[in-house]
Specification:
Ubiquitin-like (UB roll), Rossmann fold, 4-stranded antiparallel β-sheet, 17 strands
């Protein structure tokens, strides 16, 4: 019997339209806008100015504190300006705009495709290289990776979990990366193991990717300490706490980090970026992005430079269909609609989904019928119907006690609700307000 997490979960249609499309290099755009806040924590601080000429891979913004990440230029050219652009939430975010002039890379970056499996660096050197390269979690959370590799005092890491689940409908960027860069991912996993001082790692892959399961099961035989687990198809199994429960049976306590149960989770894309940082001296300046949608001419997987406008990816996939009602950055369950097609690709951009007008139109909301489907679907054991109502009424002391901060914003409640209530919208609102209250209380 295949393993999975026990509480909640839903089964949305996969719609993996681009699963069979190999990764292609997206042509360079005319200019890029590279945000300074592409990670959890403090935004990076610019170290370049208007008019400066930069190379691909050059540091352009330095991390501002421990929980922060370096930002590097993804192109070569001239810094046009340091300005603001609206992000997916609609709020302006500062970034660096660079006009592209050729593609001249920093001389110390190894651009060859030659595989190098040697683990000839110590753990601290690995962490230093990861921090220098500005690597963050590429599964969507964008937590600075070097921070994860330094557990709090008194806590010991026993197992590393590599997330190859990709449970979000439509997205296939991780799947394609696993098929095309398996050895690099496994070598990156070995680097993470050495940095964490653990002897065991498990790569979790859902059953709907049998080609990736077979490939990794065969490849992993030559990588000491790494095993593969085929998991039952269930959303949101890619969540850290759900993956830990599925693979190890351990349950992360409310408000605690995965390290509290001796586990660290890293995405397959992050493991690949770690390989490139340690073996190739390459910072995180590009990533694989899925562009898809039922009306799109050519659903694809592109390797895209950070800062590339979304419109360039859409054009490369056949152009914007006339019946497009919404453009979503990320997956359809946890992603967010973007306000304009010039939004730049960031380190956390896993996919761009073009939804038809008929798919994206919100349905009429009716009264809650007390069916409890949202409660049964919640993978965190919460009561979404109550959290929505209390958040709507600004009862933030109550929702804090009811563990609203444990919500992983997976959208299972909204997906399953027969009354079409905007449960996640109000829970996100409540979480944001409670988060502000907690931060103020700590100060």
């Amino acid at each position: 019997m295949l393993k999975t997490f026990k509480i909640g979960g839903v089964h949305p249609p996969g719609s993996k339209l681009s699963a069979g499309r190999p990764i292609e290099n997206l042509p360079l755009p005319l200019s890029v806008f590279i945000p300074l806040a592409q990670h959890i924590g403090s935004p990076a601080v610019p170290v370049v100015a208007r008019g400066d000429v930069v190379k691909t891979g050059q540091l352009i913004a330095r991390s501002n504190g421990f929980v922060s990440a370096n930002i590097h230029s993804s192109v070569s050219g001239k810094v046009k300006k340091i300005d603001s652009m609206a992000d997916s939430s609609g709020y302006p975010r500062q970034g660096i705009m660079i006009d592209v002039e050729g593609d001249e890379w920093m001389e110390d970056i190894d651009r060859s495709e030659t595989l190098s499996r040697e683990i000839d660096v110590d753990g601290q050197e690995i962490i230093d290289k990861i921090q220098k390269a500005g690597i963050v979690g590429l599964g969507g959370a964008t937590f600075p990776t070097h921070v994860k590799l330094i557990p709090p005092k008194g806590m010991k890491v026993e197992i590393l979990l590599i997330n190859g689940v990709e449970c979000e409908p439509y997205l296939t960027s991780d799947h394609r990366l696993m098929l095309e860069k398996a050895d690099e991912i496994l070598t990156g996993t070995r680097f993470l193991m050495k940095a964490l001082k653990v002897k065991k790692a498990v790569v979790g892959i859902e059953k709907n990717k049998p080609d990736a399961v077979r490939l990794f099961a065969e490849k992993s035989k030559s990588y000491e300490g790494i095993s593969i687990i085929e998991l039952k198809v269930k959303y949101p199994q890619g969540g850290e706490k759900q993956l830990i429960k599925a693979v190890t049976g351990r349950e992360v306590p409310s408000g605690a980090l995965p390290v509290a149960v001796g586990a660290i989770v890293s995405n397959v894309g992050t493991a690949f970026a770690v390989y490139e940082a340690v073996r190739k001296n390459k910072p995180l300046i590009e990533r694989v992005v899925t562009i898809t949608g039922k009306g799109l001419a050519n659903p694809s997987n592109f390797k895209v430079r950070i800062g590339t406008p979304t419109s360039a990816i859409i054009e490369a996939a056949g152009g914007l269909p006339e019946d497009t009602g919404k453009i979503i950055s990320g997956g359809p369950m946890m992603g967010r609609a973007i306000t304009h097609p010039e939004m730049p690709v960031t380190k956390g951009t896993s996919g761009i989904i073009l939804m038809k007008k008929t798919e994206s139109r919100r349905q009429e909301v009716i009264e809650c019928i007390r069916c409890s489907r949202c409660v049964r679907a919640c993978p965190m054991g919460l009561e979404p119907y109550f959290l929505m109502t209390a958040s709507e009424k600004n009862l933030f002391d109550i929702v804090e006690k009811e563990r609203i901060m444990d919500c992983i914003e997976c959208g299972s409640c909204s997906y399953i609700c027969p009354s079409k209530r905007p449960l996640l919208d109000y829970i996100r609102y409540g979480k944001a307000k409670v988060g502000q209250i907690i931060r103020t209380r700590k100060k």
